[in-house]
Write a structure and sequence with these properties.
The complex is a heterodimer of chains A (about 260) and B (about 300).
Chain A (H helix, E strand, L loop, with lengths): L2 E4 L2 E3 L20 E3 L3 H15 L3 E6 L5 H10 L3 E5 L9 H12 L6 E5 L10 H9 L2 E12 L2 E8 L2 E8 L2 E5 L11 H7 L4 E4 L18 E8 L7 E4 L4 H11 L4
Parallel strand pairs in A: 1-4, 1-6, 4-5, 5-11, 6-10, 7-10
Antiparallel strand pairs in A: 2-3, 7-8, 8-9
Helix pairs in contact in A: 2-5, 3-4
Chain B lengths: L2 E6 L4 H11 L3 E6 L2 H9 L4 E6 L9 H14 L3 E5 L2 H14 L4 E7 L5 E5 L4 E7 L4 E5 L15 E5 L10 E7 L13 E5 L9 H10 L3 E4 L1 H5 L20 E5 L5 H4 L7 E6 L12 E4 L2 H15 L1
Parallel strand pairs in B: 1-2, 1-4, 2-3, 3-9, 4-8, 5-8, 11-12, 11-13, 13-14, 14-15
Antiparallel strand pairs in B: 5-6, 6-7
The chains are: A alpha/beta (about 260), B alpha/beta (about 300).
The structure holds flavin-adenine dinucleotide (2 copies).
């Protein structure tokens, strides 16, 4: 079974993140990491490969430095990667991103595409359905569990209040939440092996897409302004010296919650 | 007045919020696939309801509903089309966007009549204003963007008959499992949420969080550290990869306040924290905080609240 994993490099969500002067995500800092949910997608693909054989290919659209993230996926155990890197893509909206990823997916044979349920920078959580609508392939998203049996795919689609069992046939696109597995760390051997694994790099032109169809100029969405969230006004903090619980109850009573 | 199309999935609070926001922008035409959703639309001021009948549509995942919404959007050609920012709402919006070749805005926390949307990005650290430069305003609305306010009206109902095409039958919903909700209010809908984190230390000790929640008539929540450790089931997780809540009161006990947790609760009206570490980031956003051991503070607070009730 051949699997493509969609991996996006993002600024570390645990650190301060910024927009640049053009109100785009500042990706120039040193804090770039693999999309935190994409790690679960890579792990899910590796487990399926271990069970069913085949190959795991990473697909990334992003600037040159995204190679670091690709190397990490190869060190985890992915076999090869396709990296779409092109200056003209900067400022693309989600629709243009999906156009490029769909074209890239058209370059090889695959049975299953696995994505993170959402990226951890812009976090729209829509890429798999954009791709499904573009390619006509089935999408069973938001998985907390995936089983493949022959050509049948079973997904437990996580909901706030339970889950749905979705069934479909390969080829399919799935996306995963962080409940699905525990991603492995790359081993030293994996890190060494990753250096020899192939990464193909292409531009959007190579995919047959005109640069004018992507990037900021083509985007339907426009960010007008951005500002830091105003801090909440400082609250009252007390230290418990035996009466902290009562003080808490009094505050709640004053606010009419009791 | 401007034509606003709204997808109403059910009769829940989030759907009511989206209808309330939509009403402030123009005349609302609601799309409902069942009677409960249709009557919510009337209750929240829709001027018209498209009541869709499509046999078997719930047996298939997302695709057939997307086709119905796309067809209606084509027919109505609205200036604004709003859906709730749920997994389903986003999936539907994405498919409508591709087929109609229209941009889309997700997770908007506000929308003005000129189409300017507010988006809280980077887990809410930055607030951006954005809009669609072309096409109609297709957007999914975050929970808590607006306070739901009823405006009962007798909206005329137009029945729409639809069929599920073979293409849209690729992903079957084989089973739908609802985990028992228990006696407490639902997490996303509750006015009061009392959450425990790693600091609670064990599944057994979550009884203390439940006791405080029950004293306040609230729901129980948990941080990912607590759900990962098996202290409490995952469906109660609050945060980026859990449920987003926006209650009147959020009480966090033994929770440090990591950015992914804040993403799911920072729009709560009043935030209260109990943590033994005075430097925990949660105190930076708390209206009231107690620096102390939750095993001392919470039992005393619960007793006091129970006494005053
Ligand atoms: C402030 C701000 C607001 C924005 N608002 C909007 C908006 O409302 N509408 C809009 O259209 N665009 C918007 N954008 C642009 C948008 O973030 C990008 O176009 C982005 O490509 C959308 O994808 P996402 O990361 O949100 O994807 P998601 O749908 O969250 O991604 C899900 C998964 O898809 C895969 N994936 C996503 N991107 C890539 C990639 N580049 N390479 C490989 N795999 C990938 C990953 O597996 C990821 O986990 C905004 C940008 C900013 C800075
Ligand atoms: C992709 C991704 C998604 C994530 N999604 C979520 C999410 O949806 N929700 C979420 O919550 N997290 C999420 N996280 C995890 C998040 O980064 C934190 O790890 C998590 O929120 C920490 O939980 P915590 O505050 O309970 O634990 P900790 O950070 O370990 O904090 C425990 C706190 O308890 C206090 N404490 C300990 N004992 C006591 C005591 N006896 N009395 C009082 N205080 C005590 C400590 O001082 C400490 O502040 C996500 C992370 C990633 C990478």
């Amino acid at each position: 079974m051949n699997i493509v994993v969609l991996v996006k490099q993002v600024p570390d969500s645990g650190l301060a993140r910024q927009l640049d002067a053009q109100l785009r995500v500042d990706r120039n800092g040193a804090n770039n990491v693999m999309g935190e949910l994409d790690e679960y997608a890579v792990e899910a693909a590796l487990q399926l490969k271990e069970a069913h054989g085949g190959e795991v290919t990473i697909l990334t659209l992003g600037p040159d430095q995204a190679t670091e993230t690709i190397r990490k996926t190869l060190a985890m155990g992915a076999d090869k990667a396709l990296h779409i890197s092109d200056e003209s893509v900067a400022g693309s909206d989600a629709l243009a991103t999906s156009k490029i990823l769909a074209a890239a997916l058209g370059r090889f044979e695959w049975d299953l595409v696995i994505a993170g349920a959402e990226s951890t920078d812009s976090g729209m959580g829509i890429m798999p359905h954009l791709l499904a609508a573009r390619t006509g392939v089935a999408a069973a998203t938001g998985a907390r569990k995936i089983d493949v049996d022959g050509t049948a795919v079973n997904v437990e689609h996580q909901r706030d209040n339970g889950y749905d069992v979705l069934t479909t046939q390969l080829p399919a696109i799935v996306s995963v939440w962080d409940t699905i597995n525990t991603p492995r760390y790359p081993s030293l051997k994996g890190i060494m092996a990753a250096k020899r694994k192939p990464i193909e790099t292409l531009t959007v032109g190579d995919l047959g897409i005109d640069a004018a169809e992507v990037g900021a100029a083509a985007a339907a969405t426009e960010v007008l302004e951005a500002a830091d969230r105003p801090p909440r006004s400082a609250g009252q903090i007390v230290t418990d010296e035996g009466e902290g619980g009562r003080a808490l109850a009094e505050f709640l009573a004053a606010e009419k919650f009791v | 007045m401007t034509d606003i199309l709204v997808y109403v999935p059910d009769s829940g609070k989030h759907a009511a919020e989206v209808l309330t926001l939509a009403r402030s922008l123009g005349d609302v035409s609601a799309i409902a696939f069942d009677d409960a959703a249709a009557s919510l639309a009337s209750e929240y001021g829709a001027a018209k309801v498209y009541r869709v009948n499509a046999a078997g549509i719930d047996d298939y995942f997302v695709a057939p509903k997307a086709t119905v919404l796309t067809d209606l959007a084509r027919q109505v050609s609205p200036s604004v089309f709003l859906l709730p920012s749920t997994d389903e709402g986003k999936a539907l919006a994405a498919r409508v966007a591709v087929v109609l070749d229209n941009g889309l805005l997700t997770d908007v926390t506000g929308l003005e009549t000129d189409g300017t949307a507010r988006q809280d990005i980077f887990a809410g650290a930055i607030i951006a204003k954005s809009k669609l430069a072309k096409g109609f305003t297709l957007a999914t609305v975050a929970t808590g963007a607006t306070a739901a306010a009823p405006a009962p009206a007798e909206a005329p109902v137009e029945t729409v008959e639809a069929t599920v095409s073979e293409d849209d039958q690729r992903v079957k919903v084989a089973e739908s499992i609802d985990e028992p909700a228990g006696d407490r209010p639902g997490l996303a809908e509750a006015d009061v949420v009392v959450s425990g984190g790693r600091g609670v230390g064990s599944a057994d000790d979550f009884a203390l969080i439940e006791r405080v929640a029950d004293a306040l008539g609230g729901a129980v929540g948990a941080s990912r550290a607590a759900t990962d450790a098996g202290y409490y089931p995952h469906k109660f997780q609050v945060g980026q990869t859990g449920t987003t809540v926006s209650p009147q009161l959020y009480l966090a006990a033994g929770i440090s306040g990591a950015i992914q947790h804040r993403a799911g609760m920072q729009t709560s009206r009043v935030i209260v924290a109990v943590n033994k570490d005075a430097d925990a980031p949660i105190f930076g956003m708390a209206d009231f905080g107690v620096v102390g051991d939750l095993f001392q503070v919470l039992p005393q607070a619960a007793e006091e609240i129970e006494k005053r009730k």
